[in-house]
Write a structure and sequence with these properties.
mainly alpha; three-stranded antiparallel β-sheet
Length: 190
């Protein structure tokens, strides 16, 4: 075994809080690594297909999120895309110029803007869906219909479990931020 691999296993064993990791565990067979690797390969492959359609990664990701949840606030979309709001503003400006997206005032919040797809975005979305279907057929080649269904069910269960676990952690973090913010305001008021 290469020296670097041995050190990695020792490091994992000494820093791991759970049960000991058996020495024959292969990182490339780890669920976390596999999900990350597959996600990366899917995104990279779809990027190539989307570029052939004239779309940047940022554009197709924004369109896909709006297709899934139309009427998002710009701030919500920025959070989902994990980009800064100013970056999203420029992106939406370009997409609005292309006629794919329109901004509408939020009826509940005068400061907020909601984003909606236009009819001109529909042909682009149809091409994206065709590219995505071809990519998934390629990625899932060799899996039976039952295996595909099991894969989707397992991923949905993982997503649900992690979302439920994240809820209390996010609530605690927000609570801590609010407490710290109140404490800082009291200090400044003195």
């Amino acid at each position: 075994m290469p020296q670097g691999r041995s050190k990695l296993n020792i490091s994992l064993l000494t820093n791991w809080a759970g049960p000991p990791i058996p020495p024959n565990v292969q990182p490339e067979r780890s669920v976390g690594f596999l999900i990350t690797d597959v996600s990366h390969l899917l995104r990279r492959s779809f990027n190539r297909r989307a570029q052939a359609l004239g779309l940047s990664q940022a554009q197709w990701r924004a369109l896909a999120h709006l297709w899934r949840t139309e009427g998002l606030k710009q701030s919500e979309l920025a959070e989902r895309l994990e980009i800064q709001p100013i970056t999203l503003t420029r992106l939406i400006d370009r997409m609005e110029t292309a006629g794919w997206v329109e901004r509408r005032p939020d009826p509940a919040d005068r400061r907020a803007v909601r984003l909606y797809l236009t009819p001109q975005a529909q042909p682009v979305l149809a091409e994206m869906q065709q590219a995505a279907a071809a990519l998934l057929d390629e990625a899932l080649r060799g899996l039976s219909a039952e295996q595909r269904l099991q894969l989707v069910e397992a991923l949905c269960a993982m997503k649900r479990n992690l979302s439920e676990a994240e809820g209390p952690a996010v609530s605690e973090l927000e609570s801590r931020k609010n407490r710290d913010g109140r404490r800082d305001r009291k200090r400044r008021a003195r």
